[in-house]
Write a structure and sequence with these properties.
Layout lengths: L1 E6 L2 E4 L4 E9 L3 E10 L6 E6 L5 E3 L7 E6 L4 E6 L8 E10 L7 E4 L3 E6 L1
Parallel strand pairs: 2-11
Antiparallel strand pairs: 1-3, 3-8, 4-5, 4-9, 5-6, 7-8, 9-10, 9-11
């Protein structure tokens, strides 16, 4: 099993910055793609950014140029640097990881508990 622990959320004014971290721990063979999702009140959980083990990234259009996802494979940790934050970025941000417990086993999904990001206008 893989456990994900997020940190770094908080309250910030519009135009400010925050950096989220997500550390994976537990028993696993490998961790593949990881990513950040967010869920605003009354809305579905949506992708923000994803990163492969080899550091290929993709972003939702609304955060391109403002957010940067990065990864430290040695620490099994991903980060989300969020700049030029807007009130529309307010949401609970969740970390996701895809992992295997053996090479021949299927890919599993794990989710973190979420961290609140609130951007005031």
């Amino acid at each position: 099993q893989v456990q994900l622990v997020e940190s770094g959320g908080g309250l910030v004014q519009a135009g400010g910055s925050l950096r989220l971290s997500c550390a994976a721990s537990g028993s696993f063979f490998s961790i593949g793609d990881m990513g950040w999702y967010r869920q605003a009140p009354g809305k579905q959980r949506d992708l923000v950014a994803r990163i492969t083990y080899g550091a290929t990234t993709n972003y939702v259009d609304s955060v391109k140029g403002r957010f940067t996802i990065s990864r430290d494979n040695a620490k099994n940790t991903i980060y989300l640097q969020m700049n030029s934050l807007k009130p529309d970025d307010t949401a609970v941000y969740y970390c996701n990881a895809q992992w295997r417990d053996a090479p021949w086993r299927p890919i599993y999904d794990s989710w973190g508990q979420g961290t609140q990001v609130t951007v005031s206008s």
